[in-house]
Amino acid sequence: MNNIDNLDKSNLDKSNSQQGKSKKFGKLPYIFALSTILSLANPSEMKANEIINNNQQNVEAVSNSNIINNIKMKTGVSLPSPYAQKLENIISINKVMQDKGSAKFIEDFIVKELQKNWWISKENQLLFIRTHIYKEISSKYLYDWSDGDDNRLNEYGDAIEQIEECWKRFRNWYIAYTNQRSAEADKRSAEADKRSAEADKRSAENKQEAIKLTNNWINQLIRFYNLYKRSPQAVEHEEISQMKKEAKDIIQDCKKYNIDYKAKLTKEMLNFYNVE
Predict the structure, then answer these.
(1) Of the four, 23, 145, 222, 266, which is 20 to 30 A from 65 by CA?
(2) 61 has which bridge partners?
(3) Are the C-beta atoms of 42 and 171 separated by less than 8 Å?
């Protein structure tokens, strides 16, 4: 009789164990379906990277340890040990997460989300939050559902609704943030274009003024030569030497600004000033 009781008890324990496994793994299709949904329609990392690359002079990079340790210092929560190094590897190759502004934005979001009670361990809550944040911006998953930790997998299933809502909040916040960065980049670009246009305008105005002054100097050369031809005694030798010296600089300016000085100066004038 005892043998029968023991057998019945063994069968009952086996049945309960199988039901527990069935319940746990019954969550898997929904978990992986959610993962697929969360991987769709994410803001383009390429766009975020482009914003950062185009404004690299305004970007201050932060180290991986700062990004990870800041959250630990503020919340007292760390990632489960198998995932700390994996997270550093993801951050190390992602420009969005290395940018100080983006890192601060992500840090603030995670700290705020950890204040919510998902009724699971805080370490796993942090892992699940980070997983879908980094999937959104880097197309890489942090959490590996097949890591062999049944308790972690169960908690993922228990918090599935909170995870989805967290992902939606982050996505909306991140899209607004990248749009803001894009608008700021466009504004800076427009301002730079405006400054460039103003500089080009000033340069053109300066060039026209220089051409005007050079033409005036050519007229001075002509008047001085005509005065010398009419009344050589009225011109000092030093004045002639000085004007010949000035003529060389004036002709150089003519060449610089494409002024046809030969159309104004006669051959005799060119010979007088010793210029070609």
Answers:
(1) 145
(2) 99
(3) yes
Q: What is the pLDDT of residues 221-243, one digit of tens each?
A: 999 999 999 988 888 889 889 99
Question: Are residues 96 and 52 in contact, defined by beta-carbon separation less than 8 angstroms?
Answer: yes
| Amino acid of residue 27 | K
The tokens 């051409």 sit on which residue? 211
Contact 254, 214 (CB under 8 A): yes
What does the block give as tokens for 198?
A: 């103003």
Under 8 Å between Cβ of 106 and 98: no
76: phi then psi, degrees, rounded to nearest 5 = 75, 10
- Contact partners, residue 120, CB within 8 Å, separation at least 6: 155, 158, 159
pLDDT in tens, 46-85: 444 444 344 444 444 444 457 788 888 999 998 988 898 8
Measured CA to CA, the distance from residue 276 to residue 274 in angstroms comes to 7
